[in-house]
Amino acid sequence: MPHIEAQGLSINFPLYHLGARSLKKRLMAAASIRLREDDSHRIVVVALRDLSFRINAGERVALVGSNGAGKTTLLRTLAGTYEPVAGRLEVEGTIGALLDPSAGMDPDATGRENIVLRGLFLGLSDAECKALVEEAGRFSGLNEFLDVPIRTYSAGMSIRLSFAVATLMSPQILLMDEWFLAGDADFMARASERLEKLVVGADILVLATHDMAIVRRWCTRVIRLASGRIEADGTVEEVLGPA
Ligand SMILES: Nc1ncnc2c1ncn2[C@@H]1O[C@H](COP(=O)(O)OP(=O)(O)OP(=O)(O)O)[C@@H](O)[C@H]1O
């Protein structure tokens, strides 16, 4: 059965550019709970500290918390982008990650070429890739921009393209950051049905968001992070209170 289990999970980011001793001293003197000096005398940001939780099939989990709480870092760790410095993480199931619009995309390739690359990466045949280009191209509504290098795309255009490609998969574990819900109104009206299908089709959803209406609509459980720790973990009602 798909599941996620974390025990004592911690993530640090070393701040390599802080060479000056005086700056280091000043930062440490601020006694911030997020900054500390590691064994190699580097200043590190403690992004996640000692997180333990289990997410089972059927659960739709919202990660909430203020800016810098650790939501995106946790999603990226679950996706395998970051390696924990301590603790254990077990992720069982196929992962679909809607985390970064440009992840896995070649900026110098056109939208069309990127769709084909993604198809080949997923192991699709030439004919299936062609069908993918048709479908993703149509759905993205990028029209002639499909044949332009994606480094020239606006943020919204990149979202459209990655959304169109990503929502063609049907992962068991869907990891989603809220930028993914930030397309323009016209596109989101068309995209919402497809997104709902993807969310409903996944065994596990983990969504980082500041939008409590979305949490109440889609999620069954809320994990609230504060300064890289779990501050609350329970049903939507328990953590957010009654609607
Ligand atoms: N690449 C990085 N290098 C150094 N520090 C980082 C890096 N990525 C994140 N951090 C730090 O880790 C902490 C958690 O950041 P994260 O992006 O996970 O927060 P978040 O809860 O997603 O915030 P937001 O709601 O603003 O998106 C922050 O203190 C941030 O400064």
TrEMBL record:
It comes from Elioraea tepida. One of its GO terms (molecular function) is ATP binding. CDD domains: ABC_KpsT_Wzt. Keywords: ATP-binding, Nucleotide-binding, Transport. Pfam families: ABC_tran (PF00005). This is ABC transporter ATP-binding protein. It comes from the Bacteria. Coiled coil: none annotated. Residues 33-243 form the ABC transporter domain. Belongs to the ABC transporter superfamily.
